[in-house]
Amino acid sequence: MEAAEGVGFKALGTVAEPLHAVSPEMARSGYLVFRAPDDFEAAIPDIVVERALAWGRQAAPNEWHGLIVGKLCEHAGRKHVVVLGVVPDTEAAAKPNYVETTVASEFRTRLSAKLLYPDGIVLGWIHGHVRHGVRFSSTDRTTQRTWTQPHSLGIVVDPWNKARLSVYRGPDAQLLTLIGDKVSPPLDTSVDDRPPCGRFRVRESLRRVN
User: Fold this and answer.
1) Where would I find the H helices in 23-174?
2) What are the Cα distances from residue 98, in Å, to 61, 89, 199?
3) What is the pLDDT of residues 150-171, one digit of tens each?
């Protein structure tokens, strides 16, 4: 658009909107459900997963970080969470092998989360690896310990990994099991102590408010 002698605008042309080659069934698919041994469940909409993977591809070769927003629910005495969306921290310092947030950047991300999801709460954090798989590193586990609620989630995604994502729960980083999906989560029998790669750093000045 351009100004027409200061009296408004005239169209210069149109831009084709993105067209996705996807069947109605896939476009309207539901949730991925991850379960703990005590039957705690986390339900994540397929569209949120696809969006997180898209952010990962867009951010490459760097990692990225965001906050998970959703609802804490209870049924028959059992708690479960439903993820509503993810809000990226666009001010986080991202590198190919790590991403680092600040107090100020997370504060602004939390404000955005409240505006975008007024009916939700911050359930945890999410970050992306770049061809390093979807297993928490030792640094990721340290970060997860700052999320002290038993329902707090930590998610890691990797668009180039077959498993796509893993979901961890609580300060002990309990790996949840994907239910009813053809893709199984990776085995998580040991801590990743390779040279720094795919890790999320927390500044000492950062404080979590759950």
Assistant:
1) 24-27, 46-59, 103-116, 138-144
2) 11, 14, 4
3) 999 999 999 999 999 999 999 9
